[in-house]
Amino acid sequence: MNVSTREVDGVTILDLHGTLVAGVGDEVLREAVNRLLGADHRRILVNLAEVTRLDSTGVGELVASWKLAARFGAQLKLLRPGDRVRSTLHLAQVLPLVEVFEDEAEAVQSFARPE
To answer: 10-residue block means of pLDDT along the chain (115 residues)?
Structure first.
């Protein structure tokens, strides 16, 4: 799993590439989110477009990251999960909890709206 970070209109976007599974993938995501929250980033968009596989550990790490962000007064949202990833998130009943977007511009703009 590789993670790159970029910023668009005050929103930090984590572009994930590879598999978000037990072992390296979940640790890479955890470290990236912890680093961003520690640096006072409060609007985080996790781009899942290039994630090819997600297991229960990856789902757990996404939920843990979302909860941690909320505890720090931050928002964490998801962008472009592929069909396999979306199916896994749906089966794990994560989709009703976390906001998911297909369009990056719409996702970035959603952070400006009051919750």
So the answer is: 95 96 88 96 98 94 96 97 94 92 97 70
In a domain, 68, yes or no: yes
Which two three-digit tokens encode residue 9?
A: 């209109």
In a domain, 31, yes or no: yes
How far is it, in rounded angstroms, from Cα 74 to Cα 53?
Answer: 26
How far, in Å, CA of 46 to CA of 85, rounded?
Answer: 13
In a domain, 8, yes or no: no
CA 84 to chain centre: 16
pLDDT of residue 24: 77
Q: What is the dihedral of CA 72, 36, 85, 82, to 10 degrees?
A: 120
Domain that holds residue 82: 19-40+49-102
Amino acid in position 106: E
